[in-house]
UniProtKB/TrEMBL annotation:
This is Membrane protein. It comes from the Bacteria. The chain crosses the membrane at residues 20-38, 178-198, 205-223, 229-249, 270-298, 304-329, 364-384, 527-546, 558-579, 591-618, 639-658, 664-683. It comes from Streptomyces aurantiogriseus. Keywords: Cell membrane, Membrane, Transmembrane, Transmembrane helix. Its main location: membrane. It is a multi-pass membrane protein.
């Protein structure tokens, strides 16, 4: 692989104008496709094959209003008044008439007919039902509903609008993300000691991100893509794109400072650091693509979209970096006498210059057993809250306090009970039944459901266009993300055989709440197998790369500690509410159900990235000197600085998405930011050197028979040191 990438670096350097032109042409073509064939993002959460999804698909044909999106207009009377008073009742009736005129609206239920008036008569709800899903509801329709609600406030009523039409806000590129990129640029300037080098590191990364994002959006008309998938691709593309460019460009500048010809230096950097980039990127891609085996469409598109962004970042690093470096030529060489030049020249520590990496590693391995016990103890302690982790999909209760959907959610929960925010739909079907027998069976089913625990109310059966069907709305006593609501769904399904035997009707629980519960259950069941696959993959890949048994086991354990500590912090902040006010977390409740799997997939690749970059230098020193302890110190001399910069860039990019008022993106950004920080600083740069120092020569042992059968990926570029240079110097370009 190193030889192939070496040739690619030479070629990209030589044909730099063509390479840059191809990338810019592809970007322009994709942007044109997005603007001409723009498709809608689809934020539905569905699990094909589950009971809830089958029933929902059936209702989409026989009663579209029940299966489609919904909005709620919540009216609250002034203090000392009731919504049933004549002036307020007239205002509500006028609002109902205006809502019926809104585009796409299928049905509007007046509180007088639906009974949606609170017990104290201070609050009423107008239900607006759409025959289409959230993704198909146009913003103009929601604006019309909000406008009708605002008009009612002129008559003294307090209003808010909520419902399922308010979902994930989608892709945002605002001040916080721009600040994240600016901080990344600052880190690059400090790392390289050169504004030119920092800018040239950022350019290929940004082009790669733009191509990846435009490519994903171009697929929207043909493939169901969620707004969360696009945001995750943007987040990952920025983070890994900058990091991968940093790895290659830092190696290139080190070699330039030692007098290597720029063209050969770029090729060598692409062959060595580029090999590590390809390996690390491949592990991220495999882990993210593995999300598709879980069988949940929105998670599949999320994983494949993010994997595509990482793939583009890898391609940009190994092609655009050599091309852009070709335009700069020798101008990227650190100035003689500068700190960057001294660090690059000090390949053996002969100048007496002690780098940050050397000082840190010496301190860490001075008492390696104490270091291992301290770090492991802290990470295990941080992991403890994760044992209480509950998974669910967020609803309007996770929206910012000032938003209209959160106000509606809170008012409904206070006045009608939390279950009103998460009703369950029970589809009752009779075989070859008429409308009358179906209605009779539906009434009997409703009576049975009223006897179940945690049921607050059961509404009368509603017929559909299929005479054999009826839909019964069940209002739990608990909220949609409550454990008791999940238990109620299981209880209804458990009593289904008895209901069928006594009423002749088969029942299926569906609705947004039931679908979300099924999604969370599927993800919970998939978590341990996914962890096993990822950990097994890490053991195999690192065994191949480092020809060792200790290093893969140590890396896998460190990875599990990083994931556990990150999830523990997520539970403490987002589920338990610790520091929620300080961090502006609007709601404490279950963790986003797909967060653990996304975190594992992303953090796995990043952990392998840092592991390869750190340990490859140590293995190289071990191969040259045979001194186990000293090879750990010497190998970390330059890599610690680069990994520190890479981790800081990753952290700031992920943290830049944390301020978003998006209940899906906020916890994911937090988890990835703290996960990168923990894995890079606590595990890779502290635990890894300590464990290697403890293991000594045994860290590099591999049975001979296993060494023979494992393929040699040559991530460290050993073959390049054996091969003679094949290219002559070329004149330096002017621009």
């Amino acid at each position: 692989m190193a030889v192939l990438l070496h040739r690619l670096g030479h070629s990209a350097y030589r044909h730099r104008k063509l390479v840059l032109g191809i990338w810019l042409f592809v970007l322009a073509a994709l942007i044109t496709c997005v603007s001409v064939f723009s498709g809608k993002l689809d934020d539905r959460f569905a699990v094909p094959g589950t009971e809830s999804q089958r029933a929902l698909d059936s209702l989409s044909k026989t009663l579209p209003e029940a299966s489609g999106a919904g909005a709620q207009i919540v009216f609250t009377a002034p203090k000392g008044h009731e919504v049933t008073e004549a002036p307020y009742a007239a205002t509500i009736a006028r609002t109902v008439a205006e809502a019926r005129k809104a585009p796409q609206v299928g049905e509007v239920l007046d509180p007088r007919s639906s009974g949606a008036v609170s017990a104290d008569r201070t609050t009423a709800i107008v239900q607006v039902q759409y025959p289409v899903q959230n993704a198909e509801v146009r913003p103009s329709s929601v604006d019309a509903i909000e406008g009708a609600a605002k008009a009612a406030e002129r008559d003294g009523l307090k209003t808010s609008v909520g419902g399922s039409v308010y979902s994930s806000k989608g892709v945002h590129v605002g001040p916080s993300e721009i600040i994240g990129v600016a901080v990344a640029l600052l880190v690059l300037v400090v790392t390289f000691g050169s504004l030119l080098a920092a800018g040239m590191a950022l350019l290929p990364a940004l082009i790669g991100v733009a191509v990846g994002l435009a490519g994903l959006l171009a697929l929207a008309p043909a493939v169901s893509i969620s707004s969360t998938a696009v945001t995750l691709a943007l987040m990952l593309g920025l983070a890994v794109g900058i990091d991968y460019v940093l790895f290659i460009l830092s190696r290139h500048r080190q070699q330039l400072a030692r007098g290597t010809d720029p063209r050969e230096s770029v090729a060598l950097a692409t062959g060595t650091a580029g090999s590590a980039v390809v390996f690390a990127g491949t592990t991220v891609i495999i882990a993210l693509a593995a999300l598709s085996v879980i069988g949940i469409p929105f998670l599949t598109t999320m994983g494949l979209g993010a994997a595509g962004a990482v793939l583009i970042a890898v391609l940009a690093a190994i092609t655009l970096v050599p091309a852009v470096a070709g335009f700069a030529g020798s101008r990227l060489t650190p100035k003689p006498g500068s700190r960057a030049a001294r660090r690059a020249a000090d390949t053996e520590g002969s100048t007496g210059h002690t780098t940050m990496g050397t000082r840190w590693t010496k301190w860490v391995i001075a008492k390696p057993l104490l270091t291992v016990l301290a770090v492991a103890g802290i990470l295990v302690t941080l992991t403890l809250p994760a044992t209480d982790m509950r998974l669910a999909l967020p609803d309007n209760g996770s929206a910012p306090h000032a938003s209209t959907e959160r106000k509606a959610y809170d008012t409904i929960g206070d006045k009608f009970g939390p279950g009103f925010n998460g009703p369950l739909l029970v589809l009752a079907e009779t075989k070859n039944g008429t409308a009358s027998t179906s209605a009779q069976a539906g009434a009997q089913v409703a009576q049975k459901l009223r006897t179940l625990k945690n049921v607050k109310a059961v509404l009368p059966p509603q017929p559909t266009s299929d005479p054999a069907q009826s839909v019964i709305t069940v209002l739990p006593t608990s909220g949609p993300d409550s454990v008791r609501t999940g238990q109620l769904v299981r209880d209804i399904r458990k009593t289904a055989p008895d209901i069928r035997e006594t009423t002749g009707a088969s029942v299926a629980v569906t609705g947004t709440t039931a679908v979300n519960i099924d999604v969370s259950n599927r993800l919970s069941d998939s978590l341990l197998p996914f962890v096993a696959i990822v950990v097994g993959l890490s053991l195999l890949l690192l065994m191949i790369v480092f020809r060792s048994l200790v290093i893969p086991v140590k890396a896998a354990v460190g990875f599990l500690l990083s994931v556990g500590a990150s999830l523990g912090l997520v539970v403490a902040v987002f589920q338990w509410g610790w520091l929620a006010d300080v961090l502006d977390v609007p709601h404490s409740g279950p963790v986003v159900s797909f967060l653990p799997i996304i975190l594992i997939g992303v953090l796995f690749g990043l952990a392998m990235d840092y592991e390869v970059f750190l340990v490859s230098g140590m293995r190289e020193e071990w191969a040259h000197t045979g001194r186990a302890r000293q090879s750990v110190i010497d190998g970390a001399r330059h890599s610690v600085r680069v990994v520190t910069a890479a981790a800081l860039i990753m952290f700031t990019v992920f943290a830049g998405f944390f301020p978003l008022d998006d209940s899906l993106i906020k916890p994911i950004a937090f988890a990835l930011a703290v996960g990168v920080a923990i894995d890079a600083f606590a595990v890779r740069m502290t635990l890894v050197p300590a464990v290697l120092a403890l293991a000594g020569r045994g860290a590099w042992w591999l049975p001979a028979w296993l060494d023979r059968i494992l393929p040699d990926l040559d991530v460290e570029g050993t073959s390049l040191r054996k091969a003679p240079a094949t290219d002559q110097k070329e004149p330096q370009p002017v621009s």
